[in-house]
Structures are given as structure tokens and as C-alpha cells.
Amino acid sequence: MDKKNPEIDQQAPVITYYLEMNNRGQLRSKAQPPGLEVTEAELKEFRFNRYLYQLVGEPWQWVDKLTLSDQAWQEYAERDSLRTWVAYHRGSIAGYYELERQDDGSVQIAYFGLAPRFVGKGFGGFLLTHALESAWSWGDTDRVWVHTCTLDHPGALSNYQARGMQVFRTERE
């Protein structure tokens, strides 16, 4: 993803991991924490997606989409091939994810993360479980995939692997 973490040595090479799950049976679920609810944003509103991107991405310096115009955001977020879910805890946004349907029958977890005040509370495993279940439930999904890198939260890769995703490619910048 488009991230830069200031706590990581910027001189170190960035490693990007591409992970996949090729059948629903590989999913190792994590239980739903008390008080955490996940809801699909069925009525698409690009401004909401932009807000979620900023809220969740700020600590990781997600910057690629910050310069997009309203029209570009609308074209991105309001497509039929993109769906957004939001996690709420006690009425506050705890995190979100976006799923993007690909032409080859796969679904990409395009964005995934927790709002800063909810990191470290045990919500990530269930939110990822929810994302994977939603991806597999979306039509005739053949594969679910995501990429993460060493600039993401230090627990990102292990969360993906703990849920049953497997690395299929690694790139070093």
C-alpha cells in the first residue's frame, strides 16, 4: 500500500509482501470482540472513503490518494467493483476495509486498517476475518489477495498469515 512509517529506518529497503488465499477453507477465523460491529457502507459516498483513508492511514503516512480531486475520489470509491466496510466500537470508527473485485474473479483487499486509538486492542484479527469472509461471499470469488510492506504496522504481515493467507511474491525496493 502507499505507506511510509516514520518510525522505520528510511534507509532500509522496503519489502512488499503479496499474500493470497485460494479457497475459503484456508481461513483461520478470529472471534468477534465484544462491542465491535462491522457494517457495509452500502450507500457509496466518496467523501466517506476519503475520510476513512485519512483516519486510518495518517499514522502510516498514506499519501498517494491525498492529492486526488473530488472527481477522481468519486470515480474510485463509487464504482460497482469497490465495496467498503466500517468497524465501529461504542459508536466510534475503529477501522475499515475496502474490497475490490478484479476482472479475473479475484478480490483484492485494497485497504485495511484500524483507526489509531484502536490499534493494539485485539480488533485487527476479527476485522480481517470479516474482510476475508466478505470477499469469499462476493459472487464467484476464486482468490483473495492483498499486499503489505515493511512500512505498514509491524503486526500486519503476521495478522494476514495468522488468518491463513500465504505469501506468493516478495519485492524489495
From TrEMBL:
GO molecular function: acyltransferase activity, transferring groups other than amino-acyl groups
Pfam families: Acetyltransf_1 (PF00583)
Protein name per the record: N-acetyltransferase domain-containing protein
Ranges where the N-acetyltransferase domain occurs: 36-173
Organism: Microbulbifer aggregans
Spans through the membrane: none
